[in-house]
Amino acid sequence: MTNLMDELRIKIIDTLKLEDIAPEDIGEEDQLVGGELGLDSIDVLELVIMIEKDYAVKIDNKELGARVFANLKALAGYIGEKAPEGIF
Amino acid sequence: MTDIRVVISGMGLMTPLGSGVGPNWHALLKGKTGIGKLTLFPTKKDLSFPVGEATESFSLKGPPRTHQMALMAAEEAIEHTIGPPDAIVMGCTTGGMSRTEALLKEKKSDPALFSHHSAGSVAEHLALKLKCKGPVITVSTACSSGATAIAVALALLRTGKYKKILAGGAESLCRLTYFGFHSLQLIDPHGSRPLDRNRRGLTVSEGAGMLLLEGKCGEVDPHTIEVLGAGLTCDAFHPASPDPEGRGALAAMKGALGDAGLTPSDIDYVNLHGTGTIDNDLSEAKAFNGLFDKEKPLVSSVKGAFGHSLSAAGAIEAVVSAKCIETGIAPANVGCHIPDPKLNLHPLKESTHASIKTVLSNAFGFGGSNASLVIGRSRKREVHPAMRPARLEVAGMACITGAGNTMQTLSAFSKGSNCQGLLSDKEISQALTPRTIRRLKRLSRMGLSLATAALEDAHGDIKPESVFFGTGWGALSETHDFLKALYETNEQFSSPTDFMGSVHNATAGRIAVKMGATGPNITTTGGDYSFEQALMSAHLLAIDDDKPLLVMGADEFHPVLSGLLDQSVTKADTPSDGGGALIVKRRESGAGPKLEPLFYKNAHENPLVISSLVQCLGGTEKINLDFGAVFAGLPAASRITGKKQLDSFIQTTGFTGPTIDYRHYVGEFASASAAAVVLAVALLKTDEIPMALAGKETVDLNGKGILMLGLGNFVTAVAVHHGEALL
């Protein structure tokens, strides 16, 4: 889980070109969307694609997205639960 | 409100419901839907969503699908008129993309195959086929394009200079929009259900709607139907999401009513934009309920029947609005079974007979661009004389070329040095914060930098209210990267950010957000004349002296696409890009430098175009009195034609002042004239043309202006001068 969260920190920064953010700036319970990171719904969709591509996990509606992208911990938890065996 | 009424004298439709206005109307009233299975290109099973495909079959030879649909609708619209239209104004976003993306997939590299790529090429195709010699303008404001085109045509007709204009919109289905809306999770897998409580999104479709509009004076004929008014605004809120409060939509509807001289109680039926996305319908419902607080007119969205044909939708729905009035029937809100109680709307369950004299029709789009039209039976209204043409006084300006920013470019240009080349992305974005640009690629960065610098030059105290942006090719980086990612993943994944940024008006929309510009936000596109189209639109729509405008043009060089799409770039030795931006104010008097678009005509099979230009500028003597120098725009792809036109102009007028072939300095890019006009204003301020540009010696302008000529496939003229209005 911790490894996955660390991996996701880097992927989030990379995918969203958050040049002014360091991986350690993303706390596991920090609000991802609308919080200090300044992410919006388009960023979430960009992350949806990254997660489907890299972890084969689909997040295809807004209600689910709001729950999964609440914070890093929730996101890693969902990916950990839904990813097909052998992906990690 | 002017003394010229704009009458709809012909209409044409090509949609998923059928070919021709009659069959479409019949199907719509029966509550049919044109939404069905996608057949145009293959998709994976789990990525197969319903679409609206046009019913007609199109030839794979000849121009792309969009062009063919537009021509069919246009021919229907003009079938009862004699002679070509005086001008064409089209709304279009993806142009020949359906063909381009297939060619790119097959890795084709012959530029000739891409000759119908541009959004502007649809209107140019119509002009060629219908022999229109006047202005050919394309507005590209995403899903509001079709309605915005009608608004621009309305403004053109109200000047009294044109009698009949063909206006509308056309769009064909393509991977870019299909996968793009999917990447934004905005497609309803069950097909669009506008206003329904279970709605999940829109259905991408295609089609064309064309209207022949005629300017009429004199007695009112109550049998005719007019475009009574138009309202254009920008949310200045977000690149792809509507303002949840619906403020921009409400302002557009109010603007259209004000322009028509009517009040909300005059409206009998509202044709909603009603895409079926959760956010659009919520935002539009707020705006609707904000406008109609007591008596509510009939209301429905037809996107459950037609799907959402993006740039064509506003024009198709203008035709639907006119049919409602003609027949006294309002169409049902197909696809809506249980209206969403949160909307507080009562969409028509079935086609309904009613006395319909006046309709309000909405079209909203990415970039927060909103257009509302009021269409109604001709009636006696209070009128006032046509608006005098505005002169646009320059309050601040900026340009970017390969030589650098405004100062660097001007310094190099004045010495006759080369300004060609490309700045790095970093240099272009110097004045912008990493947060501002993290989602922006080259064109948007350039546009935002130009706008910021122009505002700074105006001492930051006059923020623009409206934005007019010309671009020949739009956001090539986003378009390329979107398709590249799509093809690399076997048509599975694509970037929502790139899709959102790929629309031509993404740059202008972002500028509006940054500057809080909530007025009209119009992006025009027409190859080498895109900036002139933007200036012309600004000139037409600048009606308020107190509201500054931003008029600009920019194009990016893209290493893969530019050489395939822009034949002038193909011929150039040095890749170049850049643009120019000017903050202007409408002025009746004052001595500051002014811009005045004077002439715009199609030069194709038009041997009289130069004599017509000379005549329009007031004849030989006046031209020599008004202008001390000519800036000539000679695109490499049409240089031979352009040179002949220039020679003919010089010969006819006996003009002896310096003629500056500005592309020789700034390089080959579609909006080179936007950078050049900034340089012309700078030279006008010094009242001289330096020796390095003039030839043998420095030439005094002696208070005279500079004439900017666009030459080649079209001939355009813009005056840069100090004095009173020239025309």
How would you describe this structure to a colleague?
The complex is a heterodimer of chains A (88) and B (727). By secondary structure, chain A is mainly α. Helices cover 53% and strands 0% of the residues of chain A. Chain A starts with a helix and ends in a 6-residue tail after the last helix. Chain B has two domains: 5-377, Peroxisomal Thiolase, Chain A, domain 1 (3-Layer(aba) Sandwich); 391-721, 3-Layer(aba) Sandwich (Peroxisomal Thiolase, Chain A, domain 1). Chain B has a ten-stranded mixed beta sheet, sandwiched between helices. The longest helix of chain B has 16 residues, at 442-457. Chain B is globular and about 75 Å long. The model of chain B has no long low-confidence stretch (mean pLDDT 95). The chains are: A mainly alpha (88), B alpha/beta (727). At the A-B interface, helix 2 of A face helix 16 of B.
Describe the protein's topology.
The complex is a heterodimer of chains A (88) and B (727).
Chain A: H1 2-15, H2 41-55, H3 62-68, H4 72-82
Helix pairs in contact in A: 1-4
Chain B: E1 5-15, E2 18-19, H1 21-29, E3 35-36, E4 51-52, H2 65-77, E5 87-91, H3 97-105, H4 120-130, E6 136-139, H5 145-158, E7 164-171, H6 175-183, E8 207-216, E9 225-234, H7 247-260, E10 269-271, H8 278-291, E11 298-300, H9 303-306, H10 313-327, E12 329-330, E13 352-353, E14 358-365, E15 369-377, E16 391-400, H11 406-414, H12 425-428, H13 434-437, H14 442-457, E17 466-470, H15 476-488, H16 496-502, H17 506-515, E18 521-524, H18 530-541, E19 549-555, H19 561-565, H20 567-571, E20 578-587, E21 594-602, H21 609-616, H22 619-626, E22 627-633, H23 639-653, E23 659-661, H24 663-666, H25 672-686, E24 688-689, H26 691-694, E25 699-700, E26 705-710, E27 714-721
Parallel strand pairs in B: 5-6, 5-7, 10-11, 10-14, 17-18, 17-19, 22-23, 22-26
Antiparallel strand pairs in B: 1-2, 1-8, 3-4, 7-8, 9-15, 12-13, 14-15, 16-20, 16-21, 19-20, 21-27, 24-25, 26-27
Helix pairs in contact in B: 2-4, 5-10, 6-15, 6-16, 7-8, 14-17, 15-16, 21-23
